[in-house]
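cache lookup: miss for this entity combination. No prior model stored, computing from scratch. Input as submitted by user K.M.:
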Amino acid sequence: MTLSFRDRPIVWKLMAVALATVLIALVVSTSVSLWTTYSTLRSGVENDLEGQAGIIAENTSSTLAFDDPVLANETLRTLRLMPSVDLGCLYGADGKLFASFPQPPIHDHCDDKPPPIGKSVVNGKLHVTVAVTQKERQLGVFALRGNLSRVRDQFQAQVFAAFVGMILAVGAAVLLSLRLQRLIARPIVELSSTAHSIARAGDYTLRATKANDDEIGRLVVAFNTMVAEVERRDEQLRGANRLKDEFLATLSHELRTPLNAVFGWIQILRAGGTSSETVARAYESIDRNARAQATLIEDLLDISRIVTGKLRLRSEPVDLKTIAENALEVAKPGAEAKRIALNRQLPDGPAEIVGDPDRLQQIAWNLLSNAVKFTPAGGAVDVSLVGGERDWKLIVRDTGSGIDPAFLPHVFDRFRQADGSITRRHGGLGLGLAIVHELTELHGGRIEAASAGLNRGATFTATFPRMAATAPIAARVAPQPHRELEGYTVLVVDDDADAREVTAAAVQSAGGVAVTAPSGAAAIDALASHTFDAALFDLAMPQMDGFELLRHTRIILDATKTPAIAVSAHAGAEEQARQAGFQAFIAKPYDLDTLVSGILQAKEQKGTGSLFT
Amino acid sequence: MALPVRLAAVATLAALVAAGGAVRAQDLEYPVKAAYLYNFLSFIEWNAAPPGSATAPFRVCIIGADPFGRTLDDMVKGERVGHRPIEVARPADEEAAATCQVVFVARTDDARLPTIVRMAAGKGVLIVGESAKVLPACGAIAFVQEGERLRFDVNINAIRRQGLRASSKLLRVARDASSRYTQCDRQ
């Protein structure tokens, strides 16, 4: 296969360009020069011969006039000094040959008749014929025949010299283009081969070498910058992939662990014959493990919401002091169990900021539970709330395992744990701090981690801006889950039997009466024959989903002032549900408190008119 | 122009010379001398014509016996020296020599040479004779027969004395171009 000029290597192209340039220039200039030389040489010889013919004609006029052929021949003999002259012939006025050079019997002979006056070239011989005159009287004719071999010889010498010069010039061009290659082609070729090996081997640690400061040099620099960026992203990508793999391993482990406890206890309970203390412990353990798993899932959902930008914060006055106290209260049993001292330094008055109380609680609880988790028995955890001019700082300090300085910058990264191994001491998904970080920033605050090193404790400082105006804060109502649904009749609509039963049991445990319906049609029947205090619609049901069911039953519900409450495992459905006309939204999985308070709030709204419709 | 005519005149000489073998030398002597006499005109630097007579006839005079007959007249007919038409004259007296540009003296009239030379002194006259007495008598050119060839001797002193100048080419063809006649330089 023949390679077209375009596809040949740059080295080849440079060489070809140099040679072509030199050859064209040389051929053109040499041709011009040779042509000029030839013309000059030839006209020189012609002039010589013409001049010689003139001189002979002048000097032989008297020999013709006075009939002296001896002297005429003598005069013509001077032509022997002219190598270009082959033959000289002097004719008298009668046209007869009068004298000649060379003299017979030499091979060349003059014609019998004089040629016409003038100049002509025949077969490489120059014929010059002039009139012999004296005082304007023509006495005869002189004909001279010269050869142009001298011109030819000199011209051939010139051509040879030009040829030698051309070879030298081509050699010089080759040398020069070899040098040029070092300057131009080699950096390009090196860059190209570097790029090739990077592309082939995927080794982004390779770099091209910069030879000069010209465009190619800048190209090399730009190329290296790009490769460095690719290398950085490649490492990032590998790191992220590794994190993801580690996270998935952790996640499956963390999700399975509580299930083991739950299944184990359930098997023990089914077997029967267990003492009432064991049953109580079983319930306790099942509850704790289910909650732990719910927390994990909640964390996952939170991260998912944060990543997709779907997390919505309420914005209302919150007292950070209450938040901190609540968190301390919740952490107390765990801390006491590990003999960890919980110290608090809280201000006398409220620490008011604006935010989402649930999320702020989550922040405080996460920080505090982390501190307890990573602090060995006998340690101490300090919680302080420090008021600045513009902000409040929630500081959680522990005497725990501390943070490796190398890990410190990544402490708030998602899915990142200092110990990613399967044998790690501490459980959890590594999402807590990431969630805390995101939530704090969503509140307009910031969070910082500090540690003197491993086993030297850690300090987390969350800073929140103070609220602009000092509006009174409604004291956060602590949930009162016990028997609040006394006298309530609640319709529970869900196609999933387990979910239906759990919910019904929850309503009953709160003192209410639950009526269940497995489908939209059954729900319509129930609503037509009874009056309820609240209706719980699962949103995702076959045939008729929660939204459609609401449309069909809206008139009955309004007439009986029955609030409709959407229940869904799909967290993103809340906004849609409220727009569709549900008075409340309860995300699955839910605990009893959430269910009860959701029902109570919905009932309250329906009584006074919906806030959302 | 006039060239073909002149060429014809020269051709006459050449024809005569070439025919020399066939015709008796006796019969050819004077036609050849006439041709030479005419040819001399081309190889001599003549004095300028007197003011106001630039086209005055250029006189070739035969003083004494005329051996040419009509040959010379025919040869120079219509020819010119510069702008001056050539005229062949036959004056009777030696005194007329001063009015001529060329004077031919036949062998038989050698005795008249001294007078002619004296009359023509300094007048730019070329005196041509045909005997050995011509040059010693301060004549300019003397025809000499050398075998079959007609040649001539030149008295350079005499020519110079007349204020004329002979072409070197003329002197080269001459059998003897001598400047030993120093007495002829004297005025």
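stored under new cache key. The interface with chain B takes residues 59, 61-68, 71, 92-94, 96, 134-139 of chain A (CB under 8 Å).
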